[in-house]
Design brief:
By secondary structure, the protein is mainly α. The chain contains two helices and no strands.
């Protein structure tokens, strides 16, 4: 979690935080796909 006071102090950083979260989810999905492609019998 992040401190909500920091976003109140610097509200223009919200788009960067949201972008960071979206990219982390994308990375997680890509890692799952790559794992499945390397070891297809694990799922």
């Amino acid at each position: 979690m992040f401190d909500k006071r920091l976003t109140q102090l610097c509200p223009e950083s919200k788009k960067y935080i949201a972008g960071n979260i979206i990219l982390q989810w994308l990375e997680l999905c890509c890692n799952a796909v790559m794992t499945w492609l390397y070891h297809p019998n694990t799922l």
